[in-house]
Each structure stands twice: as C-alpha cells, then as structure tokens.
Design a protein that fits this description.
The complex is a heterodimer of chains A (115) and B (113). Chain A has 115 residues and is an all-beta fold. Chain A has no helices and eleven strands. Helix content of chain A is 0%, strand content 60%. In chain A, the strands form two sheets. In chain A, strands 2, 4, 5, 9, 10 and 11 form a six-stranded mixed sheet that branches. Chain A has a five-stranded antiparallel sheet with strand order 1-3-8-7-6, with no helix packed on it. In chain A, a hairpin with a 4-residue loop joins β7 and β8. Chain B has 113 residues and is mainly β. Chain B has no helices and eleven strands. Classes of the chains: A mainly beta (115), B mainly beta (113). Chains A and B meet through β4, β5, β9 and β10 of A and β10 of B.
Chain lengths: 115, 113
C-alpha cells in the first residue's frame, strides 16, 4: 500500500532563504513521485516529477527534489525563496498495487515567505 | 498549451438540490479524476474513470455521486441531493496514462445553502 507524509503543515521562510519542504512516502513498488503547487484560488499545478533515472529532478520556478530510496524521501527545495513562492505544496505518489495504480496526495504544506 | 477546463467556476445551490459539475479534460488523455477540497483542508480523491467506467472510488463517493462521460469531450460529476457538507472546491483532472502526472482544472467552488 502507498502513503505520503508531509512533515509540517505550515513552513515560514524569509525571502532569499532556503526552502525545504519534506515528503516521505511508503510504497511496496517503485513509485512515481510528484510535487504540485496550489496558488490561492487556483487548481494544482505540477512542479516536478520523478519517474525513473536521475534521482535529482528539476522543476519549474527554480524548485528541485531528490529521490532518496534509502530514506524513502522526496523533499522539495529551492535555494532562495521569493515572495511569489507563497502557496500550498502537495507531494503525491503513484504506484501499482492490487492490479491498479494508486495516486495518493499528501496533506499539503503551506509555505509563507516573509519579507 | 492544452488545459483542463471546468464550468461553472462557482455554483450556489440549495440543500437537497441536484448539481452537475462539468469538466473538459485534455483531448488525448484517457484517465479522468474528480477531487474535492474542503476550504483549508487537503485534496481528497473522489473517483477515477477510464474506458467509460469507474476504475476506483473513495469512501466519500457514495450513492449520491455519479460520473459520466456523455460525449467525447465532457466529463461530469453529479451530486443528486446536495448536503451542507458537500460545500467545497471540486477539481477535475486528467492524465494520459494512469501512472503519469495529472493535469488539474481550475476547480468549481460549490456552495450549498
């Protein structure tokens, strides 16, 4: 069975500081992993994804994430936060179990960027 | 760039009334989904749809809910008799393959009075 845990429902960083949003997953099969961003009053937008191959994946808006199988983690980072990064971020996992693909979202982390 | 569209953007209804939320997925996508997000809470999976039938549904998706692909482009979610607790943002999504990233529409805000 798959599951996703996002540590920290709220994260605050200063503008220009490192952004680190944590995501741990559980999957009995090699997972596909995703990060989505939701700006206020909008739908979810894909930031980046890991399927196979290179474990460090780069996404839009300067974000990147590293798949660490040994730690079952897929943390999202950005070297320097910008005010426009303030949003809700969702980690998601997709994997094949019991004859079907399961796509599960984490509970989300709200990022606040302080001036 | 192709995108998922949803109508209406905001629907207000009286408790007990039926509502139909409409979505137009990306044209070459084969898998379709509905999600719900109650204000300030997490995104909850409702149902997935493939090859003109439901492939998976959550506990939330009870007999009051139904989905349909009435033609080659639309994908609808019907709530037969709305309850106050159905008030939420409803997102439609589609994907090319089941394992791939999902593309989300902008959502329909449903308010049940």
């Amino acid at each position: 069975a798959q599951s996703v845990t996002q540590l920290g429902s709220h994260v605050s960083v200063s503008e220009g500081a490192l952004v680190l949003l944590r995501c741990n997953y559980s999957s009995s099969v090699p997972p596909y992993l995703f990060w989505y961003v939701q700006y206020p009053n909008q739908g979810l937008q894909l930031l980046l994804k890991y399927t196979t191959g290179a474990t460090l994946v780069k996404g839009i808006n300067g974000f990147e994430a590293e798949f660490k199988k040994s730690e079952t983690s897929f943390h999202l980072t950005k070297p320097s936060a910008h005010m426009s990064d303030a949003a809700e971020y969702f980690c998601a996992v997709s994997g094949y179990t019991s004859g079907t693909y399961k796509y599960i979202f984490g509970t989300g982390t709200r990022l606040k960027v302080l001036a | 760039e192709p995108e998922v569209t949803q109508t209406p953007s905001h629907q207000v209804t009286q408790m007990g009334q039926e509502v139909i939320l409409r979505c137009v997925p990306i044209s070459n996508h084969l898998y379709f989904y509905w999600y719900r997000q109650i204000l300030g809470q997490k995104v909850e999976f409702l149902v997935s749809f493939y090859n003109n039938e439901i492939s998976e549904k959550s506990e939330i998706f009870d007999d009051q809910f139904s989905v349909e692909r009435p033609d080659g482009s639309n994908f609808t979610l019907k709530i037969r008799s709305t309850k106050l607790e159905d008030s939420a943002m409803y997102f439609c999504a589609s994907s090319e393959r089941q394992h791939n990233e999902q593309f989300f529409g902008p959502g329909t805000r449903l308010t049940v009075l």
